[in-house]
Amino acid sequence: MAATAAAGRAAGLAGLAARPLGAAEPLSLGSLRGKENCTNDEILPMLEHVRPGNGYKPNFIMFEKCEVNGKNAHPIFTFLKEALPFPHDDPSSLMTNPQYIIWSPVCRNDIAWNFEKFLIGPDGVPFKRYSRSFETIKIQDDIELLLQKVA
């Protein structure tokens, strides 16, 4: 995994791969460059139908569940945590209660909660990491900043 993470650092996220749900082979994240994940029109229906389901099938790639911390952390998350060791809006706190840590080894740059967010630039380079308490709507300003750099 160390070699995979090192290769990922050299190529950004485009050099890494993850296995889509139900697929036999991993998909290179570089193949997604320039493609839109989902549009505003798709977000609300997705949220409306994910629970309880009602037969909704997303029209975007969803990846398998994976470990983000510990010795079995997926190379994508190892890469992201090395590039952005802590959320920019909360650089000091890690976990609120150590009894809930169920992985090993524990590292300072571990993802503390499943609502942490990473923003990746169009070039595949991690731009910013946000804590679980950072309001997602506020990421819009950073997205617009990155889009201005591309234009």
Based on the model shown, name its key terms.
alpha+beta; 151 residues; two-stranded antiparallel sheet; single chain; Glutaredoxin
3D architecture notes:
- 27% of the residues lie in helices and 9% in strands.
- It is of the alpha+beta class.
- The chain has a single domain (2-150), classed as Glutaredoxin, CATH 3.40.30.10.
- The strands form two sheets. A two-stranded antiparallel ribbon has the order 1-2. Strands 3-4 form a two-stranded antiparallel ribbon.
- β3 (117-120) and β4 form a beta hairpin.
- α1 (2-11) packs across α3.
- One of its GO terms (biological process) is response to hydrogen peroxide.
- Homotetramer. Interacts with MIEN1.
- Pfam families: GSHPx (PF00255).
* Second rung of CATH, namely the architecture: 3-Layer(aba) Sandwich
Low-confidence stretches: none
- Total strands: 4
Based on CA atoms alone, the radius of gyration comes out at 16 Å
Keywords: Oxidoreductase, Peroxidase
Subunit structure: Homotetramer. Interacts with MIEN1.
GO molecular function: glutathione peroxidase activity
Family: Belongs to the glutathione peroxidase family.
Task: Give a short summary of the structure.
The chain is of the alpha+beta class.
